[in-house]
Design brief:
By secondary structure, the chain is an alpha/beta fold. It has two domains: about 5-30 and about 295-400, Alpha-Beta Complex (Aspartate Aminotransferase, domain 1); about 45-290, Type I PLP-dependent aspartate aminotransferase-like (Major domain) (Aspartate Aminotransferase, domain 2, 3-Layer(aba) Sandwich), CATH 3.40.640.10. The protein is about 35% helix and about 15% strand. It has helices at about 5-10, 40-55, 60-65, 70-80, 95-110, 125-135, 175-185, 205-210, 275-285, 295-315, 345-350, 375-390, and strands at about 20, 25-30, 35-40, 90, 115-120, 140-145, 160-165, 190-195, 210-215, 230-235, 325, 335-340, 355, 360, 365-370. The strands form four sheets. A seven-stranded mixed sheet has the order 4-10-9-8-7-5-6, with helices on both faces. It has a four-stranded antiparallel sheet with strand order 11-12-15-14, with helices on one face. A hairpin with a 3-residue loop joins strand 14 (about 360) and strand 15. The structure holds pyridoxal-5'-phosphate (PLP). Pyridoxal-5'-phosphate (PLP) binds near residues 93, 193 and 196.
């Protein structure tokens, strides 16, 4: 019996895989980019389109509580990131939510003029900060700090420290508790981007005393392409938090159609326009795969899957040619990044063999581990295929060398 079979038998999350609709003959190592499809989403999509929209039309806002979806779904996400109810709302995209939070945070510390972040943050995080700076006076600036030593670079002019917890390329994971404490010591507000955290491992926002967070739901939360994002505002900040995208859905009484904007007295003041109900209902169904489980178990399985992948790579003699670009197990999220000069072509050849991973410029082969639907046998198969590709130099074929628009 192979070691993968034994590990799969011992896996306490093994049953979760049956909640997903996965294509056959595929090993999906890209759940960190677009999560797989939970079967419950199919029924939810049909129900919301056919019965709610089709049959009940506008009455659905009350009858099917469409109006409460952003809060209801937000609280469900909150349970997965250590936020008690009333602090998370589901809406818009990470990019838009970053703009809201950064604007609000800047306003909360008017004497401070710096937004601090890391150079290798996900580009949209930096672009959005720069866009906001273009509206503020010249005295405002963005400062790039070294992600390997955040705490030592904090100073009194920083209003908000915007960090992505897990570096999308390397997988390096920041310690939210320690960094938040260091920031608070200097009077700095923290904004955490949980794009590669939520649904992948345990996050404890309340316990860490975090101020703000944003995240998307189409990665490890499996909400589907372009599913709505979320935003967390710690309860203690909600009354003072003012964001400028003051659309009517964030009003305290949107259906009073008042001439004055009065923000809702909760995290719901982050809402802007009418929510995409279809996508949010599908996301709501997707989150049901997390019922009756514990993020600690998911985190534990992720660590085991990663260790198993690395052990198999070593066993095939591939550990030398694939340089691990991720830090040690305790300091990384649910992914492994390897640098290899032929990473792009190898990834294409792997995909051709039914193993889907992705490539990130300049030379990173990125392997994501979504513990709810990956088996150890899948990892064994994936590494076997990788060994064949490398040993037979299949990746040199011209069809694998052509670069697609989306990598
Ligand atoms: C995926 C990702 C995003 C995506 O932002 P959207 O506005 O939802 O498209 C943002 N930040 C990080 C760190 C990401 O990994």
């Amino acid at each position: 019996m192979s070691d993968a079979v034994v590990l799969d038998r011992e896996d306490v999350l093994a049953d979760k895989r049956s909640l997903f609709s996965l294509p056959s003959n595929t090993v999906y190592l890209d759940g960190n980019s677009l999560g797989a499809l939970p079967t419950a989403c199919k029924q939810a999509a049909q129900a919301v389109v056919e019965h709610q929209w089709g049959d009940d039309l506008i009455t659905s806002w009350n009858k099917h509580q469409w109006i409460d979806l952003p809060s209801r779904v937000g609280d469900k996400i909150g349970r997965l990131i250590g936020a008690k109810a009333g602090q998370v709302v589901c809406c818009d995209t990470i990019s838009t939510n970053l703009f809201k939070v950064l604007s609000a945070a800047i306003k909360m510390s008017p004497e401070r003029k710096t937004i601090a972040t890391t150079k290798d943050n996900f580009p949209t995080d930096i672009y959005m900060a720069e866009g906001l700076l273009s509206l503020l006076g010249d005295e405002y600036r963005i400062q790039f700090i070294d992600e390997n030593d955040v705490a030592s670079q904090l100073h009194d002019d920083i209003a908000v420290l915007m960090l992505t917890q897990v570096n999308f390329r390397s997988g390096r994971k920041q310690d939210i508790t320690a960094v938040t404490a260091a920031a608070h010591e200097k009077g700095i507000l923290t904004l955490w981007d949980l794009a590669h955290s939520a649904g992948a491992f345990a996050v404890h926002l309340d316990e860490a005393n975090a101020d703000f967070a944003v995240g998307c739901t189409y990665k490890y939360l499996n909400g589907g392409p372009g599913s709505p994002a979320f935003v967390y505002v710690a309860e203690r900040h909600q009354a003072r938090y003012q964001q400028p995208l003051s659309g009517w859905m964030g009003h305290s009484t949107p259906f009073a159609f008042s001439h004055e904007y009065t923000p809702h007295d909760s995290v719901k003041r982050n809402l802007c326009g009418t929510p995409g109900v279809i996508g949010m209902q599908v996301l709501d169904a997707a989150l049901s795969v997390f019922d009756n489980t514990d993020m600690a178990l998911i985190e534990d399985k992720s660590a085991k899957l990663q260790a198993y992948f690395l052990a198999k790579l070593e066993a095939h003699g591939l550990a030398e040619s694939f340089t691990l670009a991720s830090p040690a197990a305790a300091e990384r999220g649910s992914q492994l990044a390897f640098s290899h000069p032929e990473a792009y072509a190898i990834c294409q050849a792997w995909i051709d063999k039914g193993v889907i991973a992705d490539f990130r410029a300049p030379d990173i082969l990125r392997v994501g581990f979504a513990p709810l639907y990956l088996r150890f046998a899948d990892i064994e198969h994936a590494v076997n295929e990788l060994a064949l590709i490398v040993n037979n130099k299949t990746y040199l074929r011209s069809q694998y060398q052509v670069v697609n628009d989306v990598t």
